[in-house]
């Protein structure tokens, strides 16, 4: 039996080759792999000895030869195939051990050139893998070092690799090459700055972990990450404490992080079931921001997610440790803070130093539907400009709170309403089937959870236009003094007139932020 070994990932390859050799398998190898095996006293022969043709073009051509591919593709059960390769003096190749040029590692290097990336597109490797996989009944093909032990175990116990294992290894080949080709396609698309939607979308993700279950215990779940640096993403966070993250933890925390990235000053976001429940900012002090976020809704934060764009200090950690939180994420923690948080063995404490880094503009937002998927670019804008549409313009203080509320409502499920005062949310109304219900809901919650006059002097943000003037009526009754909304309804003038009647300032953004 013959094994052709050519790997860029040389993990355990020497040990595997020696085991094959001990089982009577002849080793054929190429380039750097051949050199490594010879250095470790593996009796390998170089590929050019098999083909009778030297490697050329700086190694671009070495395995693309009939003696290689006929040896792999010949069907042992086909007498004509076996006669042909015998007549051509070609021996069979029974094991193909190949993984590909490190294209992913290359494109992730700093200041890498296009020429270097292109040179790391493997040609011979995928061809050998596909050949071997096509002839899986006769050839054992291995791309992953984790499979070496499985193959050796079967060879030693049964004298051969089972057909079921060979079929499994075939599957891994096409997973490996599909992922590889997808990376190349997306690299070229990005390099060309091509923002069009391709006719055939090819995306690649890498498995991070399987989960105990999905949204509900009867569903399975798994986390994958995009190929790339993923700066500021939850998938790059380091877990310092607590249980394994669940499907819902990850989904909710991602939403909280995306909202947090809208703020530059010290800010805390508390989130529950994909919606913010309390947001607080302060020009200087993260503890004040924490107090605002907590007091905005000290009921819903129970069992929630808390993310911070500044270091969590001992004072905040002490208060956090006195309640039940699912996940805490911050760019850093003081030693005392971490010590306190670790006393809660189940709270998931995550470190994300690049927490403020946003997704690149043009990144895709993808939702799976039955039989397909819908794709859009991420909602990366906050607003281009705004227009004062009422007789009274907002004061400087109102405008500051309006911009704060507009950032928050962008991440509230539609129909979404957010109330804010002094850079603190005082009421959030998410996901109702009409806008007046969302408005009434967040006003009621503000007065119930904070104080009876919590909404007096507050501002209101709506993620989309008011179809009627009923939201203005409700705002006035609650003591709200300013409104920010996209505008664009047929009855806009009714809302404008009602604001003028009550002395409420209103601005239009001419941009909505639906979030479904």
Any descriptors?
Rossmann fold, Cytidine Deaminase, domain 2, 3 domains, 18 helices, 37% helix
Tell me the CATH architecture of the largest domain.
3-Layer(aba) Sandwich
The largest sheet is: 6 strands, mixed
**Contiguous uncertain segments of 5+ residues:** none
| Oligomeric grouping of the chains | single chain
Task: Tell me the number of strands.
Answer: 21
Q: Span between N and C termini? A: 58 Å
Global mean pLDDT: 92
Spatial strand order of the main sheet: 8-13-12-11-9-10
Question: Structural class of the secondary elements?
Answer: alpha/beta
Query: What is the alpha-carbon Rg in Å?
Result: 30 Å
State the CATH class of the largest domain: Alpha Beta
Proportion of residues in helical segments: 25-40%
CATH homologous superfamily designation of the largest domain:
Methylglyoxal synthase-like domain
* CATH topology-level fold name of the largest domain: Rossmann fold
Bin the strand percentage: 15-25%
> What's the total helix number?
18
Shape descriptor reads: elongated
Q: How many domains is the backbone divided into?
A: 3
